[in-house]
Amino acid sequence: MLKINNLHVQLEEEEKQILKGVNLEVEPGKVHAIMGPNGSGKSTLSYVLAGRPGYQVTEGTAHLGDVDLLNIEPEERAAAGLFLAFQYPVEIPGVGNMTFLRTAVNAQRKARGEEEMSAAEFLKVIRAKAKTLKIDADMLKRPVNVGFSGGEKKRNEILQMAMLEPKMCILDETDSGLDVDAMKLVSEGVNALRDQGRGFLVITHYQRLLDHIKPDVVHIMSDGRIIKTGGPELALEVEHNGYADILSEVA
Amino acid sequence: MAAPKQINTTETEARIDTLTLPQDGWSAGSRADALARLRAMGLPGRRDEYWKFTRPDALVQADVPATEVFANDEAPLMDGQPCLRVVFVDGVFDADASDDLALEGIEISRLADTSADIHWAQSLHGTLETAGQTPVARPLAALTTAFATDGLLIRVTGQPDKPVNVIYNRSSDSADAMLHHVIKLEQGTKLTLLESGPAAARLNTVMEVDVADTAAFHHVRTQGRDHQRLAATHVFARLGEESIFKSFTMTANGKMTRNECVLDLKGDDAVAHVAGACVGDGDFHHDDTVFVTHDAVNCESRQVFKKVLRNGATGVFQGKILVKAGAQKTDGYQISQSLLLDGDSQFLAKPELEIYADDVACSHGSTSGAIDDEALFYLRSRGVPVELATNLLTLAFLAEAVQEIEDEDLRADIETRMSGWLERHRT
Ligand SMILES: Nc1ncnc2c1ncn2[C@@H]1O[C@H](COP(=O)(O)OP(=O)(O)OP(=O)(O)O)[C@@H](O)[C@H]1O
Ligand SMILES: [Mg+2]
């Protein structure tokens, strides 16, 4: 589903290499986790895939199915089925959460040549999905993420994911800021989508999330590369021993 | 000490020469006084401090250059809803297009109707304008008081069940219209006044509004998409105890628009809000000049002005809050912001506070910025195309000003016009 090949990325502003040859392939219905020390390039990878400005791809490719992601606009990537749950969701004063989501859902549908969702249908669907994530009506009416607590912002990301039904979801530290109950709700949301054959790339520092969302594959990223790939047991190893052993092993 | 102001006599007299001072009827005296005031001030010139950011030339010059008449495809505000419609074409009252000037709760007549027995108007006409000449001169307002050919005289005695809807149409390529509205709200009364339409090749207006104790005045106007608009408008209001004054203006396009608003909070516990949202592209110059005087205890004033500018458009804001000695517990707020959609446009702002009381809370702020890249990327990452995302963020920027409109339907109407403009002006 998602295929990243030898991806090299540097900053546009300065010649600083951040990703130094990332290779990764996520199959439909699978969950891949990425762990790794702070500053190793995990968020950069997710941003580059989503098309955030400011990065320059110097080498390599990324495909979602047969769509060449790196040569199209962010909105086209979204319409192709890519979704990024941000590590730091952005506050947008003056734009209502509902308006935002309906605009997004219908823009994607339009881009794919599908029929737009009516206001009534949209309302019905979003209410149901918000309820399962314990997001109340008030939060839907408020401006996007403005005044939301850290955990509320993360739940709002998952609500967006549930509404947009992407093929490939990247979750960047969605667990940070979530309380134990919210973590369960979010995981249930993810697992429901996973059962439908969607792919996941879950960036996290903690085993806790992976207890709920059982990964098929775990990657360790360090200094812009994936230095080790294994099964769920790799996450447990990190949980117990930190990164020191793994880093020295590959050095 | 500033050098004594040079009076612009030649230009002032040249302008006066093109006009006729109405000699009959009850307004003759106040018109003559206004003419004397004008001569003492002179029309604004380029060196006037108060016209530092806006070149007065086009508003001052004796003749109006002919411009293409805007093919108006915009509906008036609250189109099709219950209203008392009053139509002016090139500044001339159009009886056929207007409703009967009768509405329960108001007495309404025309300035041009010199036969009417309108004592209340006689004692108000020109007085708020005169008061508004200090400390800053507003010569175009005096000009209008002297020479206005028509306007509405509205005395509000109750709470009419529908708004007065003034519609300005334009048919001549060079009409120079001058209108003067005089409005008096008696104690405990309410009025909503709407204004819209392209008006004339050049438009000068004065609106004097006397809001008595516990009365409430709501004003919503749109200055529509006429690219050629030359307009100098003035609103002067005096607020009594516990009275409410709220005015909102939307401006789209127009090569020269100066909107002055002078508010005097005279009674305790009064509330005055004035807001504007404008969108301009290219050959666009829009100036909001506001002066709010707090002269009573526990009053609230808000000024909220937002401007969206692109392709070399210019926005100006001059806003002042003056808190007089004794005007304790004043709550004054002023914000003026521009969203520059490209590097060519400019926003010039002069926010001022002058406070002579000690127990007051006043704040003011002025900013100029571009679309927030982070927000734009966030929207795009959800599949919203870049133009649509930009429009959403632009409307969000304007929202604080548009929110000042109390009536939900009017607010929705303005929002529709704003997004329509953005759709039309996509890059
Ligand atoms: N726009 C930028 N300007 C300067 N440095 C940047 C920029 N973006 C990323 N970097 C740097 O690139 C490196 C990788 O950052 P990134 O955010 O991808 O790390 P991460 O693995 O997500 O870390 P964390 O676990 O702390 O979230 C860091 O050293 C970071 O400082
Ligand atoms: Mg990160």
Describe the structure in your own words.
The complex is a heterodimer of chains A (251) and B (427). Chain A contains 10 helices and 12 strands. Chain A has helices spanning 42-50, 74-79, 97-111, 119-132, 137-141, 150-164, 180-195, 207-212, 232-241, 244-250; strands at 2-11, 17-26, 31-35, 55-64, 67-68, 82-85, 92-96, 143-144, 168-172, 199-203, 217-222, 225-230. Chain A has a 6-stranded mixed β-sheet with strand order 6-9-10-3-11-12, sandwiched between helices. In chain A, strands 2-1-4-5 form a 4-stranded antiparallel β-sheet, with helices on one face. In chain A, strands 7-8 form a two-stranded antiparallel sheet. Chain A is globular and about 55 Å long. With 427 residues, chain B is of the alpha/beta class. Chain B is built from 9 helices and 19 strands. In chain B, α2 packs antiparallel against α6 (139-147) and α8 runs antiparallel to α9. Chain B starts with 8 loop residues before the first helix and ends with a helix. The mean pLDDT of chain B is 95. The interface between A and B is medium-sized, with 32 and 24 residues. Magnesium ion (MG) binds at residues 42-43, 87, 172 of chain A. The site of adenosine-5'-triphosphate has 12 residues of chain A, from α1.
